[in-house]
Write a structure and sequence with these properties.
Largest sheet: 6 strands, mixed
Number of helices: 17
Radius of gyration: 23 Å
Number of domains: 2
CATH class of the largest domain: Alpha Beta
Bound molecules: flavin-adenine dinucleotide
CATH topology of the largest domain: Rossmann fold
Strand order of the largest sheet: 3-2-1-4-19-18
Distance between the termini: 34 Å
Shape: globular
Structural class: alpha/beta
Number of strands: 19
Length: about 450
């Protein structure tokens, strides 16, 4: 019997469990740990609340989750409640699938001012992650600056731009919806250090901006390279850039069309624009920006600076894995030090914890399958006889000794049912945003 511990119940964790079942069938027992009482990682707390079809991916993990050979062990924080060393004593292989939940710092003066947030915090706030549900951003100023040129920046801009009606069918949490409905934000500036050809935004997400009822995307035509240069782009990027060209063309309509209810919102793409400082007394009041130009694909400052008065700044510039005591960490790359997923004998990593915050949900699947192949090779080498470690019974003994009453998948199903039952009209669910309320809904105290 193989005993595998997976730390993290996001896509990488569940794909690894699926691969383990394919590899060993009834010859494996997999325990999937999560710090939260609810599973699925960023599918729940990252993917935008108005992208329900993408969130639906988690239902596909249920086949794996409901296998008798797989357990969910929720509300157990590895590195605090139980150490990695303890897991390594109990399981044949420990796979860290802990993602990259920390915001990368901007490294700019003023970034600690009030109302400056990283996207992990801001997205966590509107998606109901318990760590960020108390964030309380102030949306009382008419301009917000979103830093970054990836899909997360687009998610944040879109959420800030939407009207009440456009949140119908989403599972945005109530505290965020209430705040957004009172928002005074009418201009959202998306800052990118480089130009339109260098964006990391996908055509689908850009295309969504054209369907917003009260918001208009705006691109300065002067920022666009000559159209003939688009031919050198790969097809997806070319399509993304074609959206930017369309945004540049509809400018006049946005300015002259009828005023929508709740006021017009402009989503302003500011390319060749590198933030240099966040300015303000106690709360952000402006962002100082330096114009850039491209040199060999890199943004180089031109010395020309300007200020964007703004009351809210959200940096969408990437994420880092949380270090765990005794696990080698690569400070430069912001993830566990590993070689193709191997950290040390019996210790592995997958998903964002292995490769950093890149790719889509689906990118984590081959990652999970590859790591199981490595584990299989490693185990085959020294434990082909099947004499393994204690696994589940060993962990349960440790949990009992330590008073850890972990959340099982059936407990999560109770939380799930309660969230669905609590949904406001038209919403798929109303999430619990505090751990104690999740635990209560699971009937655990
Ligand atoms: C804002 C945002 C929007 C996105 N939207 C999309 C999208 O629309 N489409 C798409 O394809 N991809 C999207 N992605 C990317 C996608 O979410 C990731 O590819 C994927 O979630 C990474 O999976 P993971 O399992 O590595 O990490 P995660 O999903 O982050 O899962 C990590 C899990 O580990 C747990 N954990 C962490 N530390 C510990 C610990 N010490 N002990 C126990 N448990 C721990 C966490 O609670 C979490 O459940 C988005 C990402 C973000 C940030």
């Amino acid at each position: 019997m193989r005993h595998i511990a997976i730390v993290g119940s996001g896509p990488a964790g569940y794909y690894t469990a699926e691969a383990a079942l394919r590899q060993w069938g009834d010859g494996v027992r997999v325990d999937i740990f999560d710090a939260l009482p609810v599973p699925f990682g960023l599918i729940r707390s990252g993917v935008a609340p108005d992208h329900q079809s993408i969130k639906g991916v988690s239902r596909r993990y249920e086949t794996t989750a409901l296998s008798e050979n797989v357990r969910f062990v929720g509300n157990v924080y590895i590195g605090r409640d139980v150490t990695v060393a303890e897991l390594r004593d109990l399981y044949d292989a420990v796979v860290l699938a802990t993602g990259a939940p920390n915001d990368r710092k901007l490294g700019l003066p003023g970034e600690d001012l009030a109302n400056v947030f990283g996207s992990a915090a801001f997205v966590g706030w509107y998606n109901g992650h318990p760590q960020f549900s108390g964030l309380a951003p102030q949306l009382s100023n008419d301009t917000a600056v979103v830093i970054g040129n990836g899909n997360v920046a687009l998610d944040v801009a879109r959420i800030l731009a939407k009207s009440k009606e456009e949140f119908a069918g989403s599972d945005i949490v109530r505290h965020a919806l209430d705040t957004l409905l009172g928002s005074q934000v009418r201009r959202i500036v998306i800052l990118g250090r480089r130009g339109p050809h260098q964006i990391a935004m996908t055509p689908k997400e850009l295309g969504e901006l054209t369907h917003l009822t009260r918001a208009w995307p705006h691109v300065d035509p002067a920022d666009l390279p000559p159209a003939a240069e688009d031919a050198a782009l790969e097809p997806g990027q070319r399509k993304a850039v074609s959206h930017l060209r369309a945004f540049a063309a509809v400018e006049s309509e946005a300015e002259t069309g009828p005023e929508p209810e709740g006021g017009r919102v402009v989503i302003d793409f500011d390319f060749f624009a590198a933030p240099r400082a966040i300015l303000g007394e106690t709360r952000v009041e402006a962002v100082e920006v330096e114009r850039t130009r491209l040199e060999n694909g890199k943004a180089v400052g031109t010395g020309e600076t300007y200020r964007i008065p703004a009351g809210l700044v959200i940096a969408c510039i990437g994420y880092q894995t949380s270090p765990i005591p005794d696990v080698p960490y690569d400070d430069k790359l912001g993830r566990f030090a590993n070689e193709d997923g191997r950290i040390a004998p019996g210790l592995y990593c997958v998903g964002w914890a292995r490769r950093g915050p890149t790719g889509t949900i689906g990118t984590n699947r081959p990652d999970g399958f590859a790591i199981v192949e490595k584990i299989s090779d490693d185990l085959g080498g020294f434990r082909a006889d099947g004499a393994g470690k204690p696994g589940r019974p060993g962990f349960d003994a440790l949990a009992a000794e330590r008073g850890i009453d972990y959340v099982k998948f059936t407990d999560w199903q109770k939380i799930d049912e309660a969230e669905i039952a609590n949904a406001r009209d038209g919403a798929p669910r109303e999430k619990f945003v505090a751990v104690e309320h999740m635990i209560e809904a699971a009937g655990k105290h």
